[in-house]
């Protein structure tokens, strides 16, 4: 089965990998890649770049929402093979180097194995390389400062604006595309997951968050973003006010 690619705006594509999404932002011959899926998604990742008329050589940078293995899977491959810069929030840089790992443990997954969907998801995650060691050798923080708050638009295709949304991990970042009215939310705000029984805007189940209280608090950040398309790390595109989506996720998190 080929890559499931959905165009959501001019030069903006959401790709549904195997349980994890990534985003391609195109501008001329160059693209920005936001996240890279599981290590086992590499074939789908390369296929998705080709499908939008791009290539690994044309990736100006890889932006990572957070350094969990299902989002970091091919970042080091692109860096090592093509010299692609891998950029993250400064607090997430040591996480990407694997100086530590804030990711749900196998033991925690097993203790939650009675919950619907958890064991099938776990089997898939293992088969896709979810427990693989995939450090990025030379990740870099994106530059800080600018007229739009802590971060300004990055000088990359799509002009994404990093938005710090900690909780799922310490340095988790969403990416706002103000001109397009789009937010790439990573795992700070999703619209579905194989281990969740609900659909629509929500937080991931508690076991996936490093600090759940901070994850809930970061929903307030999304409430301030002017956008009407949400591209999550898991689940389908959500259309409608991102502010309302964050409010709905907060209600479900209580």
UniProtKB/TrEMBL annotation:
The keyword Hydrolase applies. It comes from Streptomyces galbus. This is MBL fold metallo-hydrolase. Keywords: Hydrolase. The lineage of its organism: Bacteria, Bacillati, Actinomycetota, Actinomycetes, Kitasatosporales. It comes from the Bacteria. InterPro entries: Metallo-B-lactamas (IPR001279), NDM-1-like (IPR050855), RibonucZ/Hydroxyglut_hydro (IPR036866). Gene3D superfamilies: Ribonuclease Z/Hydroxyacylglutathione hydrolase-like. Pfam families: Lactamase_B (PF00753). GO terms for molecular function: hydrolase activity. Residues 19-234 form the Metallo-beta-lactamase domain.
């Amino acid at each position: 089965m080929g890559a499931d690619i959905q165009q959501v705006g001019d030069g903006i594509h959401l790709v549904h990998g195997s349980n994890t999404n990534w985003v391609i932002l195109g501008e001329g011959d160059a693209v920005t890649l936001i996240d890279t899926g599981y290590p086992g998604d590499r074939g789908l990742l390369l296929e998705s770049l080709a499908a939008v008329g791009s290539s690994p050589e044309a990736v100006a940078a890889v932006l990572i929402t957070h350094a969990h293995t299902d989002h970091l899977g091919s970042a080091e491959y692109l860096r090592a093979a093509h010299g692609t810069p891998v950029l993250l929030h400064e607090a997430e840089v040591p996480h990407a180097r694997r100086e530590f790992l804030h990711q749900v443990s196998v033991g925690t997954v097993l203790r939650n194995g009675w919950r619907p969907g958890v064991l099938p998801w776990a089997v898939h995650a293992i088969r896709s390389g979810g427990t693989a060691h995939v450090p990025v050798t030379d990740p870099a923080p994106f530059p800080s400062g600018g007229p739009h708050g802590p971060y300004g638009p990055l000088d990359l295709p799509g002009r994404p604006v990093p938005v710090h949304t900690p909780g799922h991990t310490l340095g988790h970042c969403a990416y706002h595309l103000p001109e397009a009215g789009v937010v790439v939310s990573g795992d700070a705000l999703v619209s579905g997951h194989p281990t969740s029984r609900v659909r629509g805007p929500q937080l991931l189940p508690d076991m996936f968050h490093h600090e759940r209280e901070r994850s809930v608090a970061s929903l307030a950040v999304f409430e301030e973003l002017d956008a009407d398309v949400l591209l999550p790390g898991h689940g389908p595109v959500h259309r409608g006010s991102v502010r309302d989506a964050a409010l709905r996720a907060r209600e479900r998190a209580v």
